[in-house]
Design brief:
There is one protein chain. Helices cover 27% and strands 19% of the residues. With 361 residues, the chain is of the alpha/beta class. The strands form two sheets. Strands 2, 3, 4, 5, 6, 7, 8, 9, 12, 13 and 14 form an eleven-stranded mixed beta sheet that branches.
Length: 361
């Protein structure tokens, strides 16, 4: 959810099924990158997927979600639904909803984790949002995995879903003019069921204190924090997914957090999100060409306050140690700037395709 703006570090998969990892430079404008896997590795991914899904089914806990407002409304066959979890995201909601409506999302399926700002009121006013709450907190729901599982069970499988956080904005080749229905058609034509997309952190060109993003309008966040690292990422491949690290959090914060996600996927099993949003099930579909990127926004003037609140909330991975590191680094460097030698201002989808951050379709 949006309150996981600082994501967990890269975890190690089960050693029984770990493959030899390939350390790849990213981005790679020529191949973006080319992932070639042998028949034996593809078989291991299928076996690993089957084994983990069986284990997760045995331990899956039913987590109640309660509809609010107009309640749950079934999806139409033509709908493109977006799942998101949120807590205190009022500043993102105007631009978030505007961006995804513009590219073709028709329904938003949201679980609000006890927001104390205007988040819930804003969402209850949206005719295309189905809003839920839960008697348990985000941490108790296994960092939201059980909630996503319940939503997929409720709304149905054998269809495409988007699954993102409130501070993540999916872009892809020609997204300015081509809707998600076009992207999905392109993916289906290529046999792609899971669309990998790296989270590319954006930050202001000046000090963080200069980047005020308060949600008072639907101005897009890249108008406030417009810089990104154009290189300096590394990709590894194992039996479950493609893993990516780097960016300003590696360069400035020395945090090797997982940057690869699969935000657009054809959900064929209710267990799709039960393993991780970074490695959805079935695993063998997680090695497709990278056809999109998530513009990811953590670095505004409130970054330190947000991290302090996350530490106090105590809902996050490994005692919120990533947030604690953010507090230490940002707290010690007032008005720090995150720009570096590879920083570029964000322009458009053509720029990202040219750099190799995703493939042209």
């Amino acid at each position: 959810m949006d309150s996981t703006r600082w994501h967990k570090p890269v975890s190690q998969p089960d050693m029984l099924f770990t493959l030899s990892k390939t350390n790849l430079a990213f981005p790679d404008p020529d191949n973006a990158p080319a992932i070639k896997r042998s028949l034996s590795r593809r078989l291991i991914s299928r076996l690993d997927s089957w084994r983990i899904e069986r284990r997760l089914k045995r331990r899956q806990i039913q987590t109640a979600i309660v509809p609010l407002g107009s309640g749950m409304r079934p999806l139409r066959e033509s709908d493109i639904p977006l799942i998101f979890l949120t807590r205190n995201s009022a500043n993102f909601l105007p631009s978030f909803l505007s961006h995804y409506r513009k590219i073709g999302v028709t329904r938003f399926l949201c679980i609000d984790d006890r927001s104390s700002d205007e988040t819930r009121n804003i969402l209850l006013q949206q005719c295309d949002v189905d809003l839920f709450e839960s008697p348990v907190r985000y941490g108790e729901a296994d960092r939201g995995k059980f909630w996503r599982h319940e939503l997929v069970k409720l709304y149905g499988i054998q269809r495409w879903y988007l699954n993102v956080d409130c501070d993540e904005y999916l872009i892809y080749d020609q997204y300015e003019d081509k809707p998600l229905s076009w992207l999905i058609a392109q993916l289906e034509a290529k046999g792609i069921k899971h669309c990998p997309a790296p989270m590319i952190d954006l930050y202001p060109s000046g000090p963080l204190s200069s980047a005020v993003f308060d949600g008072s309008s639907d101005i897009m966040p890249w108008k406030v924090a417009n810089m990104f690292d154009a290189s300096g990422y590394r990709m590894n491949v194992d039996s479950r997914f493609m893993s990516l690290i780097g960016g300003p959090r590696g360069r400035i914060l020395n945090e090797h957090v997982e940057l690869m996600k699969y935000p657009l996927l054809y959900v064929a099993t209710t267990m799709a999100f039960a393993s991780s949003i970074h490695k959805p099930l079935p695993f063998y579909r997680n090695f497709s060409p990278i056809c999109g990127s998530l513009l990811h926004f953590k670095f505004f003037s409130d970054a330190l306050l947000f991290a302090e609140a996350a530490v106090a909330d105590a809902q996050y991975y490994r005692g919120a140690h990533v947030y604690k590191n953010v507090v230490d680094v940002l707290g010690a460097k007032e008005n720090m700037s995150l720009t570096g030698p590879d920083s570029l201002p964000f322009k458009d989808s053509r720029q990202f395709a040219k750099l190799g951050l995703f493939k042209r379709l």
